[in-house]
Specification:
about 160 residues; 2 domains; 3-stranded antiparallel beta sheet; two-stranded antiparallel ribbon
Length: about 160
């Protein structure tokens, strides 16, 4: 059974809002058990929550500004993909982060796909080389030298 961890939940009032929070949690059909551990509230949730329950969990995270909304990504299925992974929804970035999106699917970023290099990996390598080059260069203008070093082989430090 999946467990959602709600850390340091802030209630807007000690009585009424806290009571409304727990009443709302208990009204979500997918929530099987609630427990407190330290400064966290653990929600034990059904493995495949209904659309209504998943929307209620999204609302709970949003209403109480709870960090870790990405935990909800584990509930993505083929049956809820169209609405749940829709990039136009307000929760999309908080749930799925910066994953690549298509209208009907969600895929891992290029650097996490088998056999693929990270996006702009050549630019990343060039920047790393420039940083190393500027750090090791004895030139009085290391920044200018770093900008001129387009490839690692052009860096004087790499010729040692």
């Amino acid at each position: 059974m999946p467990t959602l961890t709600l850390k340091q939940v802030m209630f807007y009032s000690a009585g009424a809002d806290e009571s409304a929070f727990f009443h709302f949690i208990n009204s979500i059909k997918a929530v099987r058990r609630v427990e407190g551990v330290g400064d966290s509230i653990l929600l034990h949730v059904a493995p495949r929550p209904s659309q209504e329950s998943l929307r209620d969990l999204i609302a709970l995270f949003r209403r109480y500004d709870i960090a870790g909304m990405s935990q909800l990504a584990s509930f993505l299925t083929d049956s809820n993909r169209r609405w749940f992974a829709d990039p136009k929804q307000f929760w999309h970035r908080k749930v799925f982060g910066r994953f690549l999106r298509t209208k009907d699917s969600l895929s891992a970023p290029p650097d996490r796909q088998p056999g693929r290099l990270p996006y702009n990996s050549s630019k990343i390598a060039a920047k790393e080389a420039m940083i190393s080059c500027s750090a090791e260069s004895s030139n009085s203008r290391p920044l200018m030298r770093a900008r001129a070093a387009l490839r690692w082989s052009e860096c004087p430090a790499s010729r040692r």
